[in-house]
Amino acid sequence: MTRRFTALAALAVVCAGLELVAGRGMSPGVVWDVVNGGGDATERHIFFQLRLPRLLVSLGAGACLAVAGLVLQSALRNPLAGPEVTGVTPGAVLGAVTATALGLAGWDSPLAVVLAACTGGCAGAALLWLLAGRGRGDPAQTAVHGVLVSAVLGGLTAMVLLVEPGELGSVVQWLVGTTEGRVWQHWHLLWPWALLWGAAAWLMAGPLTLLRCGDDIALTAGLSARRARTLALLCAVALTAGAVAAVGALGFVGLLVPHLAVAVFGADLRVSLPGAALVGAVVVCGADAAAQLSSRLLAQGLDSGRLTLPVGALTACLGAALLLVVVRRTPSRTF
């Protein structure tokens, strides 16, 4: 396990380095000069005020989404559970957009956006919990209800944007998921939030393990399944809300990264939860580096200086392709 964590940490460093040099405006040589204390004032501003906080936010958001996905899959005993398909992410998006349209929050005040996103995420999760009813333990039924809830919440978000079309231009990339324009304010809000709820998720490793074994076994062990599941869902919603408020709705990160973490680190949640955080950070950081490099190459090829590929579009496409491959190769796989 130590070697695996070390290898992933080294991969995270490599992805971080690639993200720092992949963006436009500064060549890799200039970035190296700035890191070594050189460069002019503009180059130092771009590196320290734009690229570095963007890197840290992508790492933190990836870790939050991955841990939230693993908590949801463990609490619901559903391999298809994830923030994207359980109403948590769409609810968080709806809450943030609605609060902004009503003037209660703004994209220049991340704290208000986080609170609105957390409220919306809780509402989305509660709606799924009510609709699932007695079939909460059935993975297939929960997945179907989750897709329906997510579709309804997405439609409500579209309606809010139609009522307030002035907000559309400023949040369209955020709805897809992007790290563009993230500054130190986003990072200073994200890291304590992620640390608090990440630690809470790790402390729940024991109850989550019992929940994965079934409610009957949890009750035999003296655990209140409903109370533990409620706390786990609250933790997952909070982690998702923090990530959504920072980078938007990144698709498939919270759904697929937990499976990678369990495959690498095993089923012991005391190990796989921090492992999922590290894998999620690597995935989002690497995807952001690839998105920046693709934007740079496309802008050169199409002679367009303002072309930007959101990282959420890349994670959605790659995640959907990977999910199709996994389903086709292991159609009978269970959690």
UniProtKB/TrEMBL annotation:
PANTHER family: ABC TRANSPORTER PERMEASE PROTEIN MJ0876-RELATED (PTHR30472:SF25), FERRIC ENTEROBACTIN TRANSPORT SYSTEM PERMEASE PROTEIN (PTHR30472). GO terms for biological process: siderophore-iron import into cell. GO terms for cellular component: plasma membrane. It is found in: Cell membrane. It comes from Streptomyces variegatus. The chain crosses the membrane at residues 55-73, 85-105, 111-131, 143-163, 190-211, 231-256, 307-327. It is a multi-pass membrane protein. The keyword Transmembrane helix applies. It comes from the Bacteria. Belongs to the binding-protein-dependent transport system permease family. FecCD subfamily. InterPro entries: ABC_BtuC-like (IPR037294), ABC_transptr_permease_BtuC (IPR000522). The lineage of its organism: Bacteria, Bacillati, Actinomycetota, Actinomycetes, Kitasatosporales. Keywords: Cell membrane, Membrane, Transmembrane, Transmembrane helix, Transport. This is Iron ABC transporter. One of its GO terms (molecular function) is transmembrane transporter activity.
